[in-house]
Structures are given as structure tokens and as C-alpha cells.
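Example S7 (C-alpha cells).
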């Protein structure tokens, strides 16, 4: 049955690298096809740890319960508990504790396992059930998990939740649309209050709140809805008075400012950049590159910076994620070498003395106030009346500027605007993060 669901599922971009999934937990005949849209994205990905955040349908308690030892067994085999990861979060907060009894007869964790076993290999799980929690406790829990995840890109978070529960299929569609709209904003506080007031519905809603908190701490992209249905649609029983439950599959990808690339992936991208420049300077042609790494084939923006004895020799980038990352790096490396209007085209003998730096960018986020900009963490794009300019996050560290100096220089020297144009209400500000890495001095 699961194989059939996965074969039919057609998520919009199979190259993305999910770091958080929101998945339904009803019987597979009702919600399995929706769940498959998220799990289809996990195929051929390497995850060592899967945190599964569920809810309790049988036991009332405060705080967060962990299943600390042993394993889970399904008809597809055994899945072991990741004790090493659990050691990072146990005994760190009194609201988080081990209690295996909470998991007895609880399907919200178990229903995710056969899907995971169908698409992943050699992974361990961290089973989590969230009870009653205040917003403050949800924030503490999210921070604790975010710190434990850190820069690891081989950790997946699965939130197990259904949506609307009631007897009106029209109301189901309306309330689920409202709930999913809140989820897609990424605003966990607003979602928490809407759940608490009853305007939004999700039986595992606090798990979603925690996941959005983790996403904010780590800089994940905002949730994207992959598929939705409800039990009335799934069964064809579109009649009021019949119990109806909503199901959605959402994903948050690994477009983070840091910790997304392994050391091996960084070295490979640097090699692609150097070889692309070398071949182009020799022949005037682009080297043919074929990459199957799921992260490299994901559409992402990037900048390539060339430095000669620590002096800038060229820097060109693409803020828009219009093509796979490895092709973006190739094109920007060549442009930085021969297309930066501030410098003469690079000559082949100069290449051996260059150090290449790559900045892989997160998606742009429009902000309403410069107060949200964190120097050293955020790059900034300023835009007004057809003028625009961008500074990468590392500019602040390299110059030692204050935030005001950073933004004034951005306006004047990059966007051709008055020095304080960023203060105007009609000036658009966007922030992004970047994972920055470079060759060692003298690399060839």
C-alpha cells in the first residue's frame, strides 16, 4: 500500500532536502496518499536521526515525554532509538522527561515508521510526545532541540498531526485553510494562540508550534504545503453529520544559512568553481558537469568571490534560485573571473594566486524593520524605485561597521541611493543568510 502511495505521489520539487515534515497520522486508507507527498522527498537522502514529534490521544500530562531506550518494531523490521541524540536533551529541562508509558497504544508515532522504513535506510529515531505546554515551554523545547540538532544536516524532524475534527465537511475545508495559512507563515506564536483560542485546529498542533520554533532558531525556510485532503473527500462521503478529519503534508527544506553542507560538499563546490574558471580561461567554454547530489541539484542562489592576496579580485552572485546550485556556482565563478565590471578580466596566470570563496544563500525574507537585521548573520538587499543593492553577511565582520554604517554604505555604494534611504517607509528591505566557505591560502 505504501509503495502504491509513493508511486502516485508527485511533489513539486523532488530535489529539495527536507529537514522538517508535517505529516498526517490517520489510517493509511484515509491519509496515506497525502503523507506520501512528504515521504517521497526523502528517497535517496541520508538521514541518521529522525525526530518524530507526536501527540497523546490517550494520556493527559504536562510537558514532553521521550521514549528513551530500546526500539520500535513494525512489519518492515526494527527501528532503534538514537540514545546519543537523546543524551543531548535529557536532564536539560524539567519539562522534558523519559516516560515510556505515554507511548503505550499511541499511534501518532507508530504510523510514521513504515513510511520512514520504506524510503530510508540505517536511521535511528527519537520518539517525542508533547502534552500540554505553555507557549514559553514550547519555545524552550524548540531551543533545546535546535541546539541539539546544531549544524547537522542528517537530522530530520517529522511532526505527526491531523487537522480539523468535526461533523461538517464544509467547515473542515474552511478551518483547515485557516490553520494551514498560519502554518505557512512560520509564525509559531500566532499559531499557538489560534490553536489555544480554537480558531485553528490540529490535534498535534503543539508539535507544529515546536517545529516552527526549531525552524526559526536554525533558519529553515517557511513551510510549503505539498498536499491536502480530508476524510470526507478521501471516502467520497460529502455529507454533514459524518465525522471528518483534515490531513496535510508540509515541508520545510534545508535552505539554511549555515551547517547545510558537509566538508566534502564544500570542497566539491570549490573544485567546480576553480575548474570552471580554468577551463573557461583556456577555451572560452564551460566545462560539462553532471551532478546527482540532491543538495547540489536543488535550485539555490550563490555568490562567488575571488581574492588575490586578501584583496578583492571579483565578486558576482545570483540572489534568485533559478537553477541547480552546482550550475549557479559554475556560472558565478566564471562571471566573477571575467564579468565583474570593477576589474579587468582575469588572466590564466593569475588563477594560481587566487583564493575562491563561495556563499550559498538562503531564500530572501522581506522585513518591515531594520531592527530584525542581525549583523554578521544576515545579508541585506535594499530596493526602491528600480534601484537595488546587496551586501553579503560577511561584509559586516570584514568592515566592523555598525548597523547604521552597514545600511548607509549599502544604500550609497551598492544601490546608488541617499545614505539613509533605508529609513524610508517605501524602501524594501530583505534579509537572507549564507553559508560561507573558502579555499585555503594558495589553493590551486
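Recovered sequence:
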Amino acid at each position: 500500500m505504501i509503495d502504491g502511495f509513493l508511486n502516485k505521489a508527485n511533489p513539486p520539487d523532488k530535489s529539495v532536502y527536507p529537514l522538517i515534515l508535517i505529516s498526517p497520522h490517520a489510517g493509511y486508507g484515509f491519509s496515506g496518499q497525502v503523507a506520501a507527498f512528504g515521504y517521497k522527498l526523502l528517497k535517496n537522502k541520508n538521514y541518521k536521526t529522525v525526530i518524530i514529534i507526536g501527540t497523546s490521544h490517550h494520556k493527559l500530562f504536562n510537558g514532553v515525554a521521550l521514549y528513551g531506550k530500546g526500539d520500535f518494531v513494525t512489519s518492515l523490521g526494527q527501528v532503534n532509538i538514537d540514545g546519543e541524540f537523546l543524551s543531548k536533551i535529557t536532564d536539560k529541562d524539567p519539562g522534558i522527561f523519559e516516560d515510556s508509558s505515554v507511548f503505550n497504544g499511541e499511534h501518532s508515532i507508530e504510523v510514521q515508521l513504515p513510511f520512514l522504513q520504506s524510503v530510508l535506510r540505517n536511521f535511528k529515531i527519537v520518539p517525542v510526545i508533547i502534552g500540554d505546554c505553555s507557549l514559553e515551554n514550547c519555545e524552550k523545547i524548540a531551543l533545546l532541540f535546535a541546539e541539539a540538532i546544531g549544524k547537522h544536516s542528517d537530522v530530520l524532524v517529522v511532526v505527526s498531526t491531523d487537522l480539523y475534527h468535526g461533523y461538517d465537511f464544509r467547515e473542515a475545508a474552511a478551518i483547515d485553510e485557516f490553520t494551514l495559512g498560519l502554518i505557512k507563515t512560520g509564525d509559531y506564536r500566532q499559531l499557538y494562540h489560534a490553536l489555544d483560542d480554537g480558531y485553528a485546529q490540529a490535534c498535534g498542533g503543539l508539535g507544529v508550534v515546536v517545529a516552527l520554533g526549531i525552524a526559526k532558531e536554525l533558519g529553515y525556510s517557511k513551510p510549503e504545503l505539498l498536499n491536502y485532503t480530508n476524510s470526507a473527500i478521501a471516502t467520497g462521503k460529502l455529507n454533514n453529520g459524518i465525522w471528518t478529519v483534515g490531513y496535510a503534508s508540509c515541508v520545510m527544506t534545508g535552505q539554511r544559512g549555515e551547517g547545510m553542507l558537509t566538508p566534502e560538499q564544500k570542497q566539491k563546490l570549490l573544485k567546480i568553481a576553480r575548474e570552471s574558471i580554468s577551463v573557461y580561461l583556456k577555451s572560452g567554454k564551460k566545462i560539462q558537469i553532471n551532478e546527482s547530489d540532491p543538495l547540489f541539484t536543488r535550485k539555490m542562489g550563490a555568490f562567488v568571490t575571488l581574492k588575490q592576496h586578501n584583496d578583492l579580485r571579483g565578486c558576482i552572485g545570483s540572489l534568485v534560485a533559478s537553477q541547480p546550485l552546482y550550475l549557479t556556482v559554475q556560472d558565478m565563478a566564471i562571471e566573477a573571473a571575467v564579468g565583474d565590471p570593477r576589474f579587468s578580466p582575469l588572466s590564466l596566470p593569475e588563477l594560481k594566486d587566487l583564493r575562491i570563496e563561495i556563499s550559498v544563500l538562503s531564500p530572501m525574507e522581506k522585513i518591515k524593520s531594520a531592527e530584525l537585521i542581525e549583523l554578521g548573520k544576515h545579508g541585506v538587499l535594499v530596493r526602491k524605485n528600480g534601484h537595488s543593492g546587496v551586501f553579503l553577511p560577511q561584509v559586516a565582520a570584514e568592515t566592523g561597521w555598525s548597523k547604521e554604517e552597514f545600511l548607509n554604505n549599502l544604500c550609497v555604494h551598492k544601490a546608488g541611493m541617499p545614505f539613509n534611504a533605508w529609513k524610508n517607509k517605501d524602501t524594501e528591505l530583505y534579509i537572507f543568510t549564507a553559508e560561507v566557505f573558502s579555499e585555503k591560502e594558495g589553493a590551486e
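Notes on this example. DSSP finds 15 helices and 19 strands in the chain.
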